[in-house]
Protein: 4Fe-4S binding protein
Organism: Candidatus Allocopromorpha excrementipullorum
Amino acid sequence: MIKAAQQKKHWYDYLWIFSLTYLILGFFNILFAWLGLLCFFIPLLIAGIGGSKVYCGRYCGRGQLFQLIGGRFGLSLKNDVPRWMKSSIFRYGFLIFFFAMFFLMLWVTYLVFAESKGLSQTVTLLWTFDLPWHWAYHGTLFHQGVAQFAFGFYGVMLTSTVLGLATMVIFKPRSWCVYCPMGTMTQLICKARNHNALPPAERRAPEISG
């Protein structure tokens, strides 16, 4: 009875279905890529309001998907994540690079909205390879810039999934969580929020005696 209770599943244990469905829907209709914004804003809101990283540990469907593929299906070598990948330099550096590429994608979207550039029906993988993705665009009542954002954002989500799968195979199943940009950013938000919640006297650096 106790063991059965410990193994009881909750609704959030199945959020990996959302992550998998998202990738499939984006393959057939690129406009579904906009749903990925939920994975951006929800962690930030939880961290900003609650001051915790509960999203990463409980609600991240992508992390669950990696755990399922690498753990239950045994597709992970389960090696320890190297120390350099856990370092602040690498995590913050990857965060900066990731968002630089994200803002570049936003710039391209702006150019399409401004009609200075035509719609590119490609998905950029690993910020390098432009994959044709024209079959996923069926026209829209909205401006083509809406579709351009979808192509760019789906490329971001697909790239992070590929990186996560690669490190899943080489290292432990959820190795992506170590350097995930959203995880790093929510950690920074939690630190800032919890620091500001302290009384002013406790925010000061401790005096060094001796």
